[in-house]
Specification:
By secondary structure, the protein is α/β, with parallel strands linked by helices. It has 13 helices and 12 strands. It has a 7-stranded mixed sheet with strand order 1-7-6-5-4-2-3, with helices on both faces. The protein has a 5-stranded mixed sheet with strand order 8-9-12-11-10. Helix 3 crosses helix 4. The chain starts with 10 loop residues before the first helix and ends with a helix. The mean pLDDT is 96. It binds pyridoxal-5'-phosphate. The site of pyridoxal-5'-phosphate (PLP) has 16 residues, from helix 3 and helix 4.
Length: 385
């Protein structure tokens, strides 16, 4: 990626401008949606930089430059989903290679490793990444990747990315961080020592629950070329319209994250007063085990909140009683969502080493009035008892 005049500007400025200069031909302020599968050539093999749209498209280029700029990495590669992005990273490994990952990693990442990559010869171990001795003990001569997610989905555990990177790099192990929950507004893993960042842009980066997408960012030229080759070779690429939607979402990411956190703080405050709530999981709480790392590593605790209720049945009943929060998978959109991870997003991890507790309710706090969200939580939890 060429260095740009936006490199030295602040995050909110980059979210709006990096990769998104007005269209040089027409002056269009918004990035055009290049809805085309192919590009005319002036002579055989001579073209303006794009030949066939699986390999590249100017709308996708803009998105890649914008995401890379936010993550402060020189290379961004956009994918058709977050899991397509993870797949591109894991497919650089070879049979016999080993991955160490968080033991409460996103369920889809676990499923991809267990059901797609393991049958082709990768091995992996889920480990508590909060225990550096356990991580060191899990490393083998064949370990190539330490897969970190922080905060995790759905338990909101926070890990010390810089300490993990130091430990991994002593053994030449690459560090990949899934930054979907934090977003580059709250944390930039490359600046903490990570080698690769992956995103589900479906969530906060898109921010409006209207697109599925993913991205990989790295500061390593060879890795970036390999991911780009992979995206084109397997066709795991996003369409121009989807890229436009994520670009549009990115522009308000910093202001949305602030509002998500304001709402989350109010919801957490309400949850703490409810007799039906056994535990509130939010890295912004001083009692959260990762609170000290959060203060050091992040610019805020994020907009995701998980609650533990009396038992699985109560948790399911509560999920079905919300009227402002919508019962649905996914997160990071303007509307608040509630879900029951054990039966919904993380059903694929049932009976696995990373199964989530049945009494857990996960909230993605949206941008509605915080008082309405607090009242909805109160009636749902109280009514479910
Ligand atoms: C949703 C999610 C993914 C997968 O992204 P998709 O866009 O759904 O493929 C990966 N990691 C985390 C943390 C997620 O929340």
């Amino acid at each position: 990626m060429p260095s740009s005049r936006w490199d030295t500007t602040g995050l909110a400025t980059r979210a709006i401008h990096a990769g998104q200069d007005p269209d040089p031909r027409t002056g269009a302020v918004m990035t055009p949606i290049y809805q085309t599968s192919t590009f005319a050539q002036t002579a055989v093999g001579e073209h303006a930089g794009w030949d066939y749209a699986r390999g590249g498209n100017p709308t996708r280029d803009a998105l890649e430059e914008a995401i890379a700029s936010l993550e402060v990495g020189p290379h961004g590669v956009a994918f058709s989903s977050g899991l397509a992005a993870s797949d591109a990273v894991l497919r650089q490994l070879r049979p016999g290679d080993h991955v160490v990952m968080a033991n409460d990693v996103y369920g889809g990442t676990y499923r991809q490793l267990a059901k797609v990559h393991a049958p082709w010869g990768l091995t992996f171990d889920p480990v508590n990444l909060g225990d550096l001795d356990a991580v060191a003990a899990a490393f083998r001569p064949q370990t190539r990747i330490l897969w970190v997610e922080s905060p995790t989905n759905p338990l909101l555990t926070v890990f010390d990315i810089a300490a993990l990177a130091e430990l991994a790099h002593e053994r030449d192990i690459s560090v990949v961080v899934d930054n979907t929950f934090a977003t580059p507004v709250l944390q930039t893993p490359l600046s903490l020592g990570a080698d690769v960042v992956v995103h589900s842009t479906t969530k906060y980066l898109g921010g409006h629950s209207d697109v599925v997408g993913g991205a990989v960012v790295t500061n390593d030229d060879d890795r970036a070329a390999a991911y780009r080759f992979h995206a084109n070779a397997v066709g795991a690429v996003p369409g121009p319209w989807d890229c436009f939607l994520v670009l549009r979402g990115l522009k308000t990411l910093p202001v949305r994250m602030r509002a998500h956190m304001e709402g989350a703080a109010r919801v957490v405050e309400a949850a703490q007063t409810l007799a039906g709530v056994r535990e509130v999981l939010w890295p912004g709480l001083p009692g959260h085990p990762g609170h000290e790392i959060t203060e050091r590593q992040m610019c805020g605790p994020g907009g995701m909140v998980s609650l533990r209720l009396a038992d699985g049945e109560t948790a399911r009943r509560a999920c079905e009683r919300f009227t402002v929060f919508t019962l649905a998978e996914s997160l990071g959109g303007v509307e608040s969502l509630v879900e029951h991870p054990a039966a919904m997003t993380h059903a694929s991890t049932a009976d696995s080493p990373i199964a989530v507790p049945g009494d857990l309710v996960r909230l993605s706090v949206g941008l509605e009035d915080p008082e309405d969200l607090a009242a909805d939580l109160q009636q749902a939890v109280t009514g479910a008892r």
